[in-house]
Amino acid sequence: MDDHRGYDREEIFSKKVKAGKRTYFFDIKSTRANDFYITITESKRRTNGDSFSYEKHKIFLYKEDFFKFANALNEAVEHVKTDLMPEFDFEQFEHEDSEEETNNELRWE
Which family does it belong to (predicted)? Predict the structure, then answer.
């Protein structure tokens, strides 16, 4: 894997999240100094007639920003859930994801 400077970096952990037409990848990678950072990649499939391509956007998240990033993300999500859309049932999506993961695991066994 290449980091933003073009160096090969070892991938330590990867989590893939399918979300409609998008897929998000959360990858933990190591630096030369045996430090760690997270890349968050959004991948969206684009069709052009008979062919397709992927549009990707990537965020590099370093350890000194983990806490602030996670807090800001959680605060933004909670604001939408409690203040902007309190009547919406967000839990319905949690069940869909766990059912999809279970179905995928069953197919591969």
Answer: Belongs to the PUR DNA-binding protein family.
User: 24 pairs with which residues across the strands?
Assistant: 17, 42
Number of structural domains in the chain? 1
Tens of pLDDT, residues 3-42? 455 555 667 999 999 988 899 999 999 988 989 999 999 9
Is residue 26 within 8 A of residue 40, CB to CB? The reply is yes
Residue 82: give the domain boundaries.
11-108
- Is 97 within the bounds of a domain? yes
CB 28 within 8 Å of CB 13:
yes
Residue with tokens 């684009």: 46
Is residue 63 within 8 A of residue 12, CB to CB? The reply is: no
Q: Would residue 19 count as lying in a domain? A: yes
Give all strands (DSSP E) within the chain, no chain letters.
11-19, 22-30, 36-48, 51-62
Q: What are phi and psi of 39, to 5 degrees?
A: -110, 135
